[in-house]
Amino acid sequence: MALAGGGGGGHVRGRRRERKRPLSEINVTPLVDVMLVLLIIFMISAPLLTTGVEVELPRTEASAVDVSQEPVTVSIARDGAIFVGEGEVAWERLVLRVAEEGGAEARDKAVFIRADGRAPYQAVARVMARLSSAGFTKLNLITETSAGEEG
User: Fold this and answer.
1) CA distance linking residue 54 with residue 81, whole number of Å
2) Pairing between strand 87-88 and 111-115?
3) Tell me, what's the pLDDT at 151?
4) Which residues contact 61 (CB under 8 A, 6 or more apart)?
5) Are 123 and 94 in contact (CB under 8 A)?
6) Most buried residue, 46, 88, 96, 112, by CB count within 10 Å?
7) What is the C-alpha separation between 35 and 141, in angstroms, rounded?
8) What is the model's pLDDT at position 1?
9) Under a CB-based contact definition with an 8 Å cutoff, are residues 57 and 116 in contact?
10) Residues of the chain with pLDDT under 50
11) Nearest-CA neighbor of 55 among 80, 92, 30, 91?
12) Is this structure's pTM higher than 0.85?
């Protein structure tokens, strides 16, 4: 028997070369990573998108208003320009634009009036009187709240 001499090109049994099968599972780890990054970006940027018109609100010691539904926001800039949401509106179209922004039950919705602290008092009073005479009863003046600061 010649076993010692290095066995030459025979086929070795029991050792099969496995065939490569296509991968039937999708790797979702990169997808989850991207979705988490997008979620964090949207969570950080969403509060920054809520106010459109830059006004410097007057400071008061009043408490915050509890809101159960999305209000209509009317902003009055320092120069007396009137904005509903983020778009500027003419005085003649103020009531119509607030009604459009409020939807079907606009007269029952809260209207937030954000006026710059240096805006003319007459402009704020005129806007409030116009909305009140048009049937809007839930008018709220929005101010900066401060505890004991003089400003």
Assistant:
1) 12
2) unpaired
3) 43
4) 145, 146, 147, 148
5) no
6) 112
7) 39
8) 53
9) yes
10) 148-151
11) 80
12) no
